[in-house]
Amino acid sequence: MNLKVNKSLLAGAISALLCAMCLALYLTQVNGEVERARAEALARYGGEQLEVVVANRDIAAGEVVGDSMVDTKMWIADLLPEGAITERADVVGKKLGSSVLSGEVLSSKRLYEASSSLDIPLGLTAVSVPVRDVQAVGGAVEPGMTVDVYATGPTSTTRLIEGVLVLATSMAVADSPSATSVSWITLAVDPSSVAELVAAAQNLELYLTLPNGVVESPSDEASGTVEDGEDGASDVGIQADAEDAQADAEGAQAQEASGGTEPSREEEL
User: pTM above 0.85?
Assistant: First the structure.
């Protein structure tokens, strides 16, 4: 009985050893193939390989990169784009400034970075206020424009600032493709107006208007003005024409009522 058990154990040990040897042989073969493929790639393209971060699905511009959206793969160094990202931590949690396709190596140039520099005119102060599209001429307000700022509340509307320069908007910040509507606007205002503007932004609704810069004078006819010396004559002429029209109308009504022919006003005269 013991002899049979020893034979079974021996056979099991031999089988395990053979399996281990086969597995080792297989791994050696696989590693050899990988090394050959790497050697062929290096011979074909030259240079070394690096581990880089690659998108495993299409990522739209404006999306925040999640850990499940990317993998790391070996890549020929000479074929990598400039600024290729080699660490997942350098891209996970960051927003993309442009779309990335599945299988594409992520680079720092694809990341969205807001510009922190503003060209503030001398003597003015940059201040940002919250506004929506409807408060910013339908979202048409852009940096470089000059606007008037109105504050409106439950009982009144007041023009706070006239001719203020727009420095930046949430729609125009350094290629921010995720922005679909205006949410804030940065203005260059006089330092003395900052407190009033901030207080109004906190307690009232701000509206921006775009003056066209051209004021057309109304015509003489529309404004009711006449040349000097002609106002009396014009009034007399208008009154006479009105009296004639009234007399003609009365004559026509009388003729229709009598069924006969009435002489015209000119014939009576």
Answer: no
Q: What pLDDT score was predicted for residue 189?
A: 94
> Where does the chain hold its CATH 3.90.1210.10 domain(s)?
49-110
Q: Tokens for 209, please give them.
A: 């208007």
Q: Residue 210: CA atoms inside 13 Å, Cβ hemisphere, count?
A: 14
pLDDT for res 213: 60
The residue with tokens 């006819």 is 221
Q: What is the CATH number of domain 49-110?
A: 3.90.1210.10
Q: How far apart are CA 131 and CA 142, in angstroms?
A: 13
| Greater model confidence, 62 or 194 | 194
Which of the four pLDDT bands, split at 50, 70 and 90, describes residue 225? very low
Alpha-carbon distances of 17 from 10, 12, 28, 30, 247, rounded to whole Å: 11, 9, 16, 20, 129
Query: Helix %, strand %, coil % for the chain, to 5?
Result: 40, 20, 35
Q: Are residues 91 and 110 in contact, defined by beta-carbon separation less than 8 angstroms?
A: no
Residues 6+ apart with CB under 8 A from 170: 176, 179, 182, 183, 184, 185
pLDDT tens digits along 189-215: 999 999 999 999 999 999 999 987 643
